[in-house]
Automatic annotation (TrEMBL):
NCBIfam families given in the database record: PRK13798.1 (NF010372), UraD_2 (TIGR03180)
UniProt keyword annotation of Lyase present: yes
GO terms, molecular function: 2-oxo-4-hydroxy-4-carboxy-5-ureidoimidazoline decarboxylase activity
Reactions it catalyzes: 5-hydroxy-2-oxo-4-ureido-2,5-dihydro-1H-imidazole-5-carboxylate + H(+) = (S)-allantoin + CO2
Pathway: Purine metabolism; urate degradation; (S)-allantoin from urate: step 3/3
Origin species: Saccharothrix hoggarensis
The Oxo-4-hydroxy-4-carboxy-5-ureidoimidazoline decarboxylase domain, residue ranges: 8-157
InterPro entries: OHCU_decarboxylase, OHCU_decarboxylase-2, OHCU_decarboxylase_sf
Pfam families attached to this UniProt entry: OHCU_decarbox
Name under which the protein is recorded: 2-oxo-4-hydroxy-4-carboxy-5-ureidoimidazoline decarboxylase
Key words of the record: Decarboxylase, Lyase, Purine metabolism
Gene name linked to the record: uraD
EC numbers on record: 4.1.1.97
Length: 161
């Protein structure tokens, strides 16, 4: 993985797959690439956040690249490892409760529940999911968009680590 200098100088085709693992939105990937060179990591993260003003269609598409909370990512690759690390707060004892809560959420909103899980316990995620069930669908989609932006920033830091 490149440091910031490597990120700034790498060919776009080399970075595109890594950026797509951060946030699977082609417009965001293109904007982050076009914004190079970044003077520091904070500037990169600020640009990432600015470009992460996602349309509803982009949010729905990006959700599809994430596993359900409590499930392992399908396939391999760096995003599967990142997802496992991010969801490390989920314990086996919560599996059935999370499965049921995910199903109810998906029935209500038509997409899977997404949260920036790093640093959260399984109980905290379950509480967040339960609280968000009260959101109107349009509000919930904006919440998911913000969570995607948080995940993208977290993963960008990992790209540069």
């Amino acid at each position: 993985m490149p440091d910031l200098d490597g990120f700034n100088s790498a060919p776009p085709d080399q970075l595109r797959p890594l950026l797509t693992e951060c946030l699977a939105v082609p417009r965001w990937v293109d904007a982050v690439l076009a914004g190079r060179p970044y003077p520091d990591v904070d500037a990169l993260l600020a640009a990432s956040d600015r470009f992460a003003d996602l349309s509803d269609a982009e949010v729905r598409a990006a959700i599809g690249s994430h596993p359900r909370i409590g499930e392992k990512a399908r396939g391999g690759g760096v995003s599967a490892k990142w997802s496992a690390d991010e969801q490390s707060g989920v314990t086996a004892s919560l599996a059935d409760r999370l499965l049921a809560a995910n199903a109810a959420y998906e029935d209500r909103f038509g997409h899977l529940y997404l949260v920036c899980a790093t640093g959260l316990t399984g109980e905290q995620m379950l509480g967040d999911l339960t609280a968000r069930m009260e959101n109107p669908p349009d509000v919930e989609l904006r919440v998911v968009s913000r969570e995607l932006a948080k995940i993208a920033a977290l993963r960008l830091r990992k790209v540069l680590a």
